[in-house]
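Task card 7
Instruction: Convert sequence to structure tokens.
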Amino acid sequence: MSASSSAASGDAPPPGAINIDAMSLEELNSVKQNQEARLEQLTAQYQQLRAASARLSGARTALSSLPVNGGEGREIMIPLTESLYAPGKIVEPNRVLVELGAGFFVEKGAKDAARVLERKGRVVDANGENVKAAAEAASRNARAVSQAMQGKMMEIQARQQGMAYKNQMEAGRR
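Output:
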């Protein structure tokens, strides 16, 4: 949705654009509510992507802290959940399981695992930037619709005041 008015610039409206100046207050309110709901969804999605990026960054940091040579038998705490850990020992420090997505894991060497995590991080960050741009557009659209609603309300109010003045003048002539 593009909330800009193209009549002033003489350009053709972009595809999917709507003329908010021609809409009623009820229609504007509906569009505004839709844009606000979209903004909330996009904001939540952006926060999820930021959290995923932080988890991937943490995984890269943890991977880089693993000793490649001589780490066999080193005691570590293995997370079973976010708040439950079990003691364990490193058997092969250069072999790790990397989640590819949707619960699928693959065994990789430390260097290959780091490349997978880096690639996933770039994808998550790019998606985050796309979602952020969409959220900013939804926010701009909601503001534009809100301004159009305020303009319509001022127009209605002025019309009502004009009618009241006209009626008052006509009543004074009788």
